[in-house]
Write a structure and sequence with these properties.
Elements: H1 3-11, H2 18-25, E1 32-34, E2 59-66, E3 69-76, H3 87-105, E4 111-115, H4 126-143, E5 149-153, E6 159-160, H5 162-169, E7 172-176, E8 181-182, H6 186-193, H7 203-210, H8 212-217, E9 223-225, H9 229-241, H10 254-260, H11 271-280
Parallel strand pairs: 3-4, 4-5, 5-7, 6-8, 7-9
Antiparallel strand pairs: 1-2, 2-3
Enzyme class: lyase
Pfam families: Carboxyl_trans
Protein name: Biotin-independent malonate decarboxylase subunit beta
């Protein structure tokens, strides 16, 4: 292995654990993890279903500064249950956002960064997970009136299900080429609609439709960065410096909705067709 190759691997963001991702983003010496694994906040439901729990329930939350600005950060661990969210993990994220909200109400500007690597709600916890995601979404809407809430989607697990809606509520979204956001994942679409509709093994099609490059070109993402720690950190810092958007993407849905209503769903689309629809409308 050459020195250059080793440096590139060491600089990669995607392969870091959730805890290391937070440490890589925050200013040196400012990280203070909240509700650590030593607090042993495990899901009360997983063991009953034969699943070994994790002491942080797959979610790491912390506070610190990023480029000198106060932030709370929540990172989802993709290696635990596919990054799925249950009652405890979801409550941790919602609590971190509510902490930032209270700080702002006290006159202490505090933004939020969400490192989203998740398949959505944890099936073993079903409605409890959905309720937790709803609390996260409510907290984002309240907080983003004061300070930016920045979502980061970098890894191949992507951001799906209810958490993709959560991502859509963020003030700013940052993605790498490898990331994917979407309401339903490829395997779910294939299962429900058939392989002719969506072949989950066709990686070129999947990333062409939902990968970071496509989402950025479509205007659904604010920043497109390489898988590099410095690049991700610089992009988050840039979003923090922009302050609160005048209009959030989730409040400006009339134009994309009108474009989607033009689509002839009887025809299979590709990356080029999807980009045309999302940016200019369907070809008549």
């Amino acid at each position: 292995m050459t020195a250059t190759t080793q440096q590139r691997q060491q600089a990669g963001f995607i392969d870091l654990s959730a805890r290391k991702r937070i440490a890589a983003l925050l200013d040196a010496g400012t990280l203070h993890e909240l509700l650590t694994p030593f607090d042993r906040l495990t899901s009360p439901w997983l063991e009953r279903q034969g699943v070994v729990p994790q002491f942080d329930d797959g979610v790491v939350i912390a506070r610190g500064t990023l480029d000198g600005k106060a932030v709370v950060v929540a990172a989802i661990e993709a290696s635990f249950q596919g990054g799925s969210l249950g009652e405890v993990g979801g409550a941790k994220i919602a609590g971190a956002l509510e902490l930032a909200l209270e700080e702002n109400r006290r006159g202490n500007p505090t933004a939020a960064v969400l490192l989203l690597e998740t398949g959505g709600v944890r099936l073993q916890e079903a409605n409890l997970g959905l309720a937790a995601i709803a609390e996260i979404q409510s907290a984002i809407v309240a907080l983003r009136r004061y300070q930016p809430v920045i979502g980061v989607i970098t890894g191949p697990v992507g951001c799906f299900g209810g958490m993709s809606i959560t991502a859509g509520l963020c003030s700013y979204l940052i993605m790498t080429r490898e990331g994917r956001p979407g309401l339903n994942g490829p395997q779910v679409i294939e299962q429900e609609a058939g392989v002719a509709e969506y072949d989950s093994r066709d990686r070129a099609l999947i990333w062409g439709l939902t990968g970071g490059a496509q989402r950025h070109a479509s205007g659904l993402v604010d920043a497109f960065v390489d898988d590099d720690i410095a690049a991700v950190q610089a992009s988050v810092a840039d979003c923090l410096s922009r302050a609160v958007p005048q209009t959030h993407r989730s409040d400006d849905i009339a134009t994309p909705l009108a474009r989607l209503q033009q689509v002839d769903t009887r025809k299979q689309t590709d990356a080029t067709g999807a980009l045309q629809i999302l940016t200019q409308g369907a070809v008549q």
